[in-house]
Structures are given as C-alpha cells and as structure tokens.
Amino acid sequence: MRRERKAVTRSLVIGVLVVAVTAVGFGLYWFQPWKLWQDETVEEALPETVATSAPPAAEARTPSSPARPRTLASGELISHEHATSGRAKLVQLADGSHVVRLENLDTSNGPDLRVWLTDAPVKEGKSGWHVFDDGEYVSLGKLKGNKGSQNYVLPDDVDPARYTSVSIWCDRFDVSFGAAELARA
Asked: Whole-structure pTM over 0.85, yes or no?
C-alpha cells in the first residue's frame, strides 16, 4: 500500500514537472524576453533608386539637375506599448518608386516586429495601441533593427496617397510599439 502511494506520488510529481517545463519553454519561445536586452542597430543610406523597380523612362535631364529623392510626408514617432522615438518619412525616389524611411529610430526589440503603412489615425496612449489593424494596412516587412535609420520599399501596386501613418507593429501580440502620423509636405 505504501509503495503504491509512493508510485502515484512520484508519477504525479513527474507529470507536474513535465507540464511546468513545457509551459516555461513555450513561454520563452512566445515572449522571447531576452530580446528586450538585445539591440540591433541598422544604418542605411537613403537609396537613389530601388533595384527591384522597372528602369525609369527616358527623360531629358541636364547633368546639373538630376532627380533627387523627395519627401512626400513625414512625422515623429510616438510611443505606444514600448518607448519609441525617431522620424518616419514617405519618400519618392528618383525613379518614381517609394520607400518608408525610419530615421534615428529607437524602440524596444520584440519577437515579431513589422513596419506597417496604414490608414489609421495615430492616437496617443493605450487607445492607440490596437487601431492599426482595424483599417487598411500594408506590411513592408520585418523591422531590420530596433535602432538606427532604415528603408522599407513600397510594392509597386501600393498607392502611397491612401495611407496616413506608419506603425512599428508587433504581429505576435497585435500591438503597436510606436507610430507616426504622416503629414504631407
């Protein structure tokens, strides 16, 4: 009788340990807390043209006045779920293609951060954390680094005039780390 009780107790303890280790493992995978202490800095120059776009049409240009990138809209990043600062710009390049440029970005790292171009208004505080997936948005790809200046190419079929904000979006938890309202230049 005593042996049976020891066997049941041992099985129960082993079962609880297996469940606990599995839960901790899943939690570590899902939240990836170590990323909060890992910074990744990316410093990219603003490109003159995007390599994936079609070649520009033949234009009459004088050598002294080449087409230059032009900022169409810009805005300061505000904090949402995590402290975020920097500037977001919508830039038209010399070949007519567009990029979203993040300058002097400083935010927390996270498990699945994306750069979204959206039509949502930027709201301060908690009321702004979850609005960006309510309307129309375009994911421009994974955030290259949580610090620095970097470029995100808009697909050719995206009309940049339809979008009014940029969000650093955590796809895993459906929350904005920070966002900028794009004021037209």
From this structure: no
